[in-house]
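Researcher: We're teaching a course module on how sequence relates to structure. For the next exercise, students receive a sequence and then see the predicted structure as tokens, so they can try to spot secondary structure elements on their own. Here is the exercise chain.
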Amino acid sequence: MSESNALDAYQDAAARTINPALTEAERLLDAVAGLAEEAGEALGHVRKHVMQGRALDRDALARELGDALWCVAIAARTLGLPLSEVARANEEKLRLRHPHGFRAAE
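Model: And here is the predicted structure for the students to work with:
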């Protein structure tokens, strides 16, 4: 399965868990607000690791990243965008912005 197909298959699977009682506007708000919430939870794990010296709980962080991915997938679907197209457009934006990638300071 190609990466695009895998992203779109994930998006289809994630869509099975959409709350059917929400309107399209509510679904979009829920997904985008959820993204902010999940990003905050991921930040909390990393902040505690870096600033407080706690061991990084990679499994918990991976779960938060997965929740954030769900939110992105549902927001994109609500807008009628395949997740693979969102990824492709972002890759192109990065390629144009950083055609040589990042290089360490010499």
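Model: If you want an answer key for the exercise: DSSP finds four helices and no strands in the chain. The helical segments are 3-15, 24-52, 58-78, 83-97.
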